[in-house]
Amino acid sequence: EADIYQTPRYLVIGTGKKITLECSQTMGHDKMYWYQQDPGMELHLIHYSYGVNSTEKGDLSSESTVSRIRTEHFPLTLESARPSHTSQYLCASSLPLGLAGGTFFFGPGTRLTVL
Amino acid sequence: AQKVTQAQTEISVVEKEDVTLDCVYETRDTTYYLFWYKQPPSGELVFLIRRNSFDEQNEISGRYSWNFQKSTSSFNFTITASQVVDSAVYFCALSEVNFGNEKLTFGTGTRLTIIP
Predict the structure, then answer these.
(1) Nearest Cα to A9, choosing from A86, A106, A114, A110?
(2) Potential cystine with A46: which of A7, A62, A72, B95 (Cβ 3.0-4.6 Å)?
(3) Full DSSP string of A1-54
(4) Which of A2-6, B43-47, B86-90 has the highest mean predicted lDDT (pLDDT)?
(5) Cα separation of A75 and A18, whole Å?
(6) Contact, B11 vs B112, CB < 8 A?
(7) What's the pLDDT tens digit per position in A29-76?
(8) Interchain CB distance below 8 Å, B45 and A41
(9) What is the pLDDT of residue B96?
(10) Do B104 and A45 touch (CB under 8 A)?
(11) Contact between A94 and B91 using a beta-carbon 8 Å cutoff
């Protein structure tokens, strides 16, 4: 059982606000990811990190940014939220290859609504 | 590039019926992993199974079973004697083993509704 946490679970904010979505894991996994899930259910990778001070953009372009200063922490920031950012954001971490085959474990998600 | 296709967008069955969720994948890697995840209404993604490309044995876990066929690039999921608690969105996913660069690509999901 993986321990990966996201806060807040739900967030409703106005346009133009700066927000940070928190993600923490206690398993010491090097690899962490952010997925965005639109209302049509599709999941898209927007950011990933393979370790401290490593961040990469994912397959879907996103106006958000991420940082990885500590292994356990991978926050996502939106400098100026817009209604188009309304979505569910899922954080994940993964085991290394050769150890349970790179299984991804997901947090409970943050459901963001921008008015 | 890797791709996962779940052609069934929504399925509804009456409780106790069996149901199969289809998953077809594309990859150029010879080594890869396939996954199924369940997303209940609460929103979290629950890991169900992982299968690597070298292991084509089918797997059964209680009412759940998975049929992996490399020849047709399919990894189908069957629920036997379905229950209302099985209602959820189910995602099939693929991870290529490109060392140091593995990412998880999801299908578009199948929304399963079990009717009491």
Answers:
(1) A110
(2) A62
(3) ---EEEE-SEEEE-TT--EEEEEEESS--SEEEEEEE-TT--EEEEEEEEETTE
(4) B86-90
(5) 13
(6) yes
(7) 889 999 999 877 889 999 999 899 999 998 888 889 999 999 999 999
(8) no
(9) 81
(10) yes
(11) no
Q: For chain A, how many residues are written?
A: 115
Q: Given phi > 0 = left and psi -120 to 50 = alpha, else beta, which region is A59?
A: alpha
pLDDT at B97: 73
Q: How far apart are CA A62 and CA A111, in angstroms?
A: 16
Cα dihedral value B106, B103, B95, A41, nearest 10: -10
Comparing alpha-carbon positions, the chain B residue that sits nearest to A98 is: B97
In total, chain B counts a number of residues equal to 116
Q: In this structure, what are the phi and psi dihedrals at residue B101, rounded to the nearest 5 degrees?
A: -135, 25
Which backbone phi and psi does B55 adopt, to 5 degrees? -120, 100
**Within its chain, how far is the Cα of B33 from the centroid?**
12
Q: Residue B90: closest CA among chain A residues belongs to which residue?
A: A41
Cα B25 to Cα A57: distance, rounded to the nearest angstrom? 23
pLDDT tens-digit readout, B30-55 = 888 899 999 998 888 999 998 888 88
Asked if residue B36 lies in contact with residue B94, where contact means CB atoms within 8 angstroms, the answer is: no
